[in-house]
Design a protein that fits this description.
Layout (H helix, E strand, L loop, with lengths): L18 H15 L11 H11 L4 H14 L3 H6 L2 H8 L6 H17 L7 H5 L6 H11 L9 H11 L5 H13 L5 H14 L18 H15 L1 E12 L2 E6 L9 E2 L2 E3 L5 H12 L1 E15 L3 E14 L6 E5 L10 H10 L7
Parallel strand pairs: 1-6
Antiparallel strand pairs: 1-2, 1-4, 2-3, 2-7, 5-6
Helix pairs in contact: 1-11, 2-3, 2-8, 8-11, 9-11
Bound molecules: iron/sulfur cluster.
Iron/sulfur cluster binds next to helix 9 and helix 12.
Length: 359
């Protein structure tokens, strides 16, 4: 990751975005696109706690009316803690996952009992409260208290992993920590909400709206997609025939000689050239000591490799073993797992011998 935006000169491949520039672009976007949500009308750790518990399993539009009614009935942690459980469950009715309501009520009671109604401002204590996992605890700190903590929900994880090409786990947390350390002071709430909104409105899980997106020129995800599509365009289509030659419980494997899997064990194959496949099957029988008795067209399987897209017509040939083998082996179906067969052959076996082959 680059650390200094001056590193980049005009016309240069922009490389990965530096953190200051990421924050600047994100905040610019957020200034025009911030979602107006009721738990953002007024901030308090209690409001964040209620909202995040509700949002844990439920979509935003459904949560909004419940949140408003809940806050009206239980405006603070004392009101919630002192309410009978039935009343809390009644306010939750229809929102589902009632364990959340039980936990929220218990958490409020402990906060009143042990912390004089003050929601703890450290992650360890928060996580000891019922129903509060790492995400909700971080949201209370980062949004409720505006402390320099990033709440990594699914949306935020997706945005960071796509823009910076970060992997799940330590790599993602490291980027989160770096972002927090680079953000202007007092902006934790802003950063958390901006990332959440960006992930919910632009960088969508299935169909990210990359055009336009403030990070599109720098985004690792877009670059990788471009590479992948260039590779796809470069792949040559290979149309081949694959023979699944069976004799009783055994299948014929040969050492491949062609350009696809040179030197690997696999099923006999040849490029399609319009010749009647029976001629090829007869030649195979002579070469490998096999007498073909019946031939069945099973269909087509496809697989893509780095340089080729392969479409394979699968022929099942039933017969019996005859002479000595050279460069081939008869292998029992149950022993096939011992051979590192390329995926294309496994697909062909599954299509040609669905009864015998167990992948
Ligand atoms: S360019 Fe696409 S994938 Fe990258 S951050 Fe923007 S929306 Fe997400």
């Amino acid at each position: 990751m680059r650390s200094n935006r001056e590193d980049r000169s005009p016309g240069e491949d922009p490389g990965l975005l530096n953190l200051e520039e990421f924050l600047e672009r994100l905040f610019q976007w957020f200034a025009n696109n911030r979602r107006d949500l009721p738990w953002r009308a007024e901030y308090s750790p209690y409001r964040v706690l209620v909202a995040e518990v509700m949002l844990a399993q439920t979509q935003v539009p459904r949560v909004v009316p419940y949140y408003l009614r809940f806050l009206e009935r239980f405006p603070d942690v004392f009101a919630l803690a002192s309410a009978p459980r039935e009343e809390v469950l009644l306010a939750w009715e229809g929102l589902g996952y009632y364990r959340r309501a039980h936990h929220l009520h218990e958490a409020a009671q402990r906060i009143v009992e042990h912390f004089q109604g003050h929601i703890p401002a450290d992650i360890t204590t928060l996580r000891r409260l019922p129903g509060i996992g790492p995400y909700i605890a971080s949201a209370i700190l980062g949004i409720g208290y505006n402390l320099p903590v990033l709440a990594l929900d699914t949306n935020v994880r997706r945005v960071l992993s796509r823009v910076f090409g970060a992997k799940e786990g330590a790599n993602l947390c490291e980027i989160g920590n770096l972002l927090v350390s680079h953000m202007p002071s007092g902006k934790a709430r802003h950063l958390n909400e901006a990332l959440m909104d960006f992930g919910s409105l632009v960088c969508l899980s299935r169909k990210p709206r990359c055009f336009p997106c403030p990070f599109q020129r720098f985004c690792a995800f877009v670059k990788d997609a471009g590479k992948e599509s260039r590779i796809r365009q470069r792949r040559t289509l290979l149309e081949i025939c694959v023979a699944v030659c069976c004799a009783g419980e055994e299948v014929l494997l040969t050492k491949s000689e062609g350009k696809l899997f040179p030197g690997l064990w696999g099923l006999p194959l040849r490029e399609q050239d319009g010749e009647d496949p029976r001629v090829w099957i007869d030649a195979l029988g002579k070469r490998y000591g096999f007498s073909p008795l019946a031939l069945k067209e099973c269909g087509v399987v496809a697989h893509a490799y780095t340089r080729y897209r392969v479409r394979a017509r699968v022929l099942r040939v039933s017969g019996k073993r005859t002479g000595t083998l050279s460069g081939a082996a008869w292998v029992a179906f149950r022993e096939l797992f011992q051979y590192p067969l390329p995926s294309l052959f496994r697909k062909a076996l599954a299509l040609g011998c669905p009864g015998e082959y167990r992948p």
